[in-house]
Prior knowledge:
The complex is a heterodimer of chains A (about 160) and B (about 650). With about 160 residues, chain A is mainly α. Chain A has two domains: about 5-95, Cytochrome C biogenesis protein (Helicase, Ruva Protein, domain 3), CATH 1.10.8.640; about 105-155. Chain A has helices at about 5-15, 30-45, 60-75, 80-90, 105-135, 145-155. The model of chain A is unreliable at about 1-20, about 135-140 and about 155-160 (pLDDT under 50). Chain B is globular and about 80 Å long. The two termini of chain B are about 50 Å apart. Mean pLDDT of chain B is about 90; it is low at about 645-660. In chain B, the strands form two sheets. In chain B, strands 2, 3, 4, 5, 6 and 7 form a six-stranded antiparallel beta sheet that branches. In chain B, a hairpin with a 4-residue loop joins strand 3 (about 535-545) and strand 4 (about 550-560). With about 650 residues, chain B is α+β, with helices and mostly antiparallel strands. Chains A and B meet through helix 1, helix 5 and helix 6 of A and helix 9, helix 10, helix 11, helix 15 and helix 16 of B.
Amino acid sequence: MKTLAILMVLLCAFTFVGPAIAVEPHEILKDSVLEARAREISKVLRCLVCQNQSIDDSNAGLARDLRLIVRERLTAGDSDDAVIQFVTKRYGDFVLLKPPFKSSTYLLWGGPAAFLLFGFGALIVAFRRRRAAQPFDTAPLTDDEIRRLENLSSGDQGGAS
Amino acid sequence: MIPEIGHFAIALALVMALVQGIAPLVGAARGNATWMELARPAARGQFLFTALAFACLTQAFVTSDFSVAVVASNSHTLKPMLYKVAGVWGNHEGSMLMWVLILTIFGLMVAEFGHNLPPSLRARVLGVHGLIAIGFFAFILFTSNPFDRLDPAPLQGQGLNPLLQDPGLAFHPPFLYLGYVGFSMAFSFAVAALIEGRVDPAWARWVRPWTLAAWCALTVGISLGSWWAYYELGWGGWWFWDPVENASFMPWLAGTALLHSSIVVEKRDALKSWTVLLAIVTFALSILGTFLVRSGVLTSVHAFATDPSRGVFILVLLVMIVGGALTLYMIRAPQLKGGGLFSPISREGALVLNNLLLATATAVVFLGTLYPLALDAVGGGKVSVGAPFFTATFVPIMSPILIACVIGPVLGWKRGDLGAALKRLRIALLIAVAIVLVTWYAASGNQVFSALGLGVAAWLIIGSFIDLAGRIGFFRVSPMEMVRRAVNLPRSAWGTAFAHAGLGIFVAGVTASSSWQTEQVQLMRTGDTVPLAGYSVTFEGVKELKGPNYEAIRGSFTVRQGDRVIARLSPEKRFYPAEKSQTTEAAIHTTWLADIYTVLGDKDKSGGWSTRFYHNPLVPWIWAGVMVMALGGGISLTDRRLRVGAPRRAAGPSAPPVPTGA
């Protein structure tokens, strides 16, 4: 099942610079604080020629170029947001692994919450309806239970209650 | 000759599937016992012919018969025997043949061991199963024939993708398919029950072992894939929210929900129509996973559009199977009146919460995986949905489950007492809070989420067993008595405890490895030493060597703690001449509390080697936890009530109550 992912990985790895591990030693910034920021930024930027890989994970040449750009901008004094904006301006929203909240992604971002709310709503309605139909009583044996017991002893069961 | 026999066997299996898909359903509708009985010989025949076809294909791979097209494009004479065999399912055609082989194995099992099923239900289950089989046999015969010949046959094969030549990945697809296809059994039972118009606790008890077995296999399959990604892809990650991974994760999430809701049907005769719907959805997601991976639609919508024959076929199958089942559901579901009433705070209530959240989590993965495809297909532009999206949405939805799944099993059926439940869990709660505070303090007030993660892990591990400890009478009765009580507890209760504790072990692994990973990337020359999280790693040099079908450069590293040598690690870079590609083989030393992970990179112009080391705390717990979860499923599968089978229908809901569901 992984075949496709692997193909893409291979494509990334071998069409460009040959196999290598993602961040190369010479790319790393001397300033460890800047480097840590660069790594964090790299994790949210997509290697455009790979399948769903961040530039932090990818061996592709394009990913390396992007990593260098990120580090260049950071060294020049840009803030994290400014770096991401710089890259987005050049490559579009497609480069962001976490898509921005805009009209074409309302459904993506709103979907989970809508699903959860709908589910909760349906549950509440179901509970209410049931309670209205058969009030949940605290008495040890409700009419309903007596009826069910009768059903059981008569051997009939299932949807009778 | 042998490949032609295989091809013919698939055709015969299709004929058997036609018999199995039509005769028993007609027989059951008309009350004709002879027609109903046809299901069993048809299921046997279908299995035998499919097994024969599979054996023929295996023979072609083992003997490197390059006149068969899939063998020529996926095998090589120099490949080790394990990968010649694994090559059978390491390609599209062969993997689909394995898909149907597993399908027929499940059908055979119902035919042989379904004695305790009422004849009409068994006939309908097998009939529906036969209908599914018809679709997939036709798919193989018309679009993906594994026995296509090449003329002239090439002298040598093109080899198998070297990344696939790995023991972990050799066994990944069989387990994954056991899971995917196993859910077809739950689907067939659901559709058969809809046709019969009857879902009751006995039905749930029959469905449960199949669902549980499929779930265990899928759990093992996914974790094998993730483990492989961890050590083979060489950057120390283990889950990438890649669409291919998500394709197998969706049926797992839905299947987990199904496992839990079927408990409510079995024990309390409630949530019936929801459980039937979940069974349909779970299998639908399994086919969707097959479609996503097999059609090429993930690479790009346009690649799919240029060669759509296979993709469209599976899509049509998906629409027919799911559309048919959902239509039947719409007609019949209103008749499935739920029986047992319960208050929101109760075992049932907790299981409903579990289902709501797992269903939402499934929806999140579904949305995140398909949104880019859908948006692109309607011309809405290109969008990337990657790991950061899933972290932001999936994690918050799953977190309440982690807390609730300890409380749920302690609550009573019908109406639970939350206060009393928490009181029984107070030791777990105290330890969890202590762990949060200690971690938070040790991390000097940063990393609140990491501290909470470890706390939740402790809550899960300890909380899952604390109730059992109470029931065994820990520290209160003699050891002999404790053993006696422990043995007498229902296996399903043990299964629940293990599965939930496994989840806790997994959470600990995920939290620690993502919070406290140490990475060292550098150029090294022979003799260089770098520090790594309290250890030191010395580069001893490289040497070249030759494997059976590859050439490798092997680096040697010595890991020391102080002056003591902890491990000697030899990561490799391999070159496979047949496939003209390279792989990296990480070398890992595990202490079970952490992994020391080494990768050898490229030689740089100045003669240094680029090397990469990781110290990954608790990362082995990720797979250990998942294995404990699967073990829990396995223990639950041996529960007495599943071994002896369901009682006769007349016994219905008065079946002896088992205190804890699994």
